[in-house]
Amino acid sequence: MNPDHHSSLNPSSSLKSRFTKTFLRSLIKINKQRPFPYCPREIFQRCHRVKTAADKSLARAAGSRRVWSRAMLCKIRNRSLRRGCQQRPSVRRIIIGYQTTKKGYCLQKKMSDDQEVGTDQASKLRKLVPGGEAMDLCSLLDEAAHYIKCLNTQVQVMRRIADIHSS
């Protein structure tokens, strides 16, 4: 059986392998810059670089079809531009899957307590999922499920790397 065919049958292992590959490259690059940080500020900066590398690797492994991955990459890119230039970058428009609806009138009716709780939970979820502010509820739930799956994969891979490194 073709190995490429096998990876298409199991997308989670493909995600794992793509994430692992890019994350390990990033870790090697970080280690080459300064192998052993000495002061607390350098340690903090190194931890921040590792976290950013993990987020960037995860977003790249997930691909550009997902709104959360595009939003995360955009956020990382903008953050690095601000640090590099020490100025605010020029405004860029990035469309992240916002769906417009036809404007029409709808009857105002009072929400029940269950609907208010659901709206509150959806707004909390929008804050957690990158790019979630611009999504409708159905898309938000789909993206949140995929984002959680990818975060779980990230934790598994990073735990495995830590286990290998500590033994």
From TrEMBL:
Sequence intervals crossing the membrane: none
InterPro entries: HLH_DNA-bd_sf (IPR036638), IBH1-like (IPR044660), IBH1_N (IPR059002)
Entry-linked PANTHER family: TRANSCRIPTION FACTOR IBH1, TRANSCRIPTION FACTOR IBH1-LIKE 1
Domain IBH1-like N-terminal: 13-79
Keywords recorded for this protein, A-Z: Nucleus, Transcription, Transcription regulation
Name of the protein described by the UniProt record: IBH1-like N-terminal domain-containing protein
Annotated localization: Nucleus
Pfam families membership: IBH1_N
First-listed, main subcellular location of the protein, grouped into a coarse class: nucleus
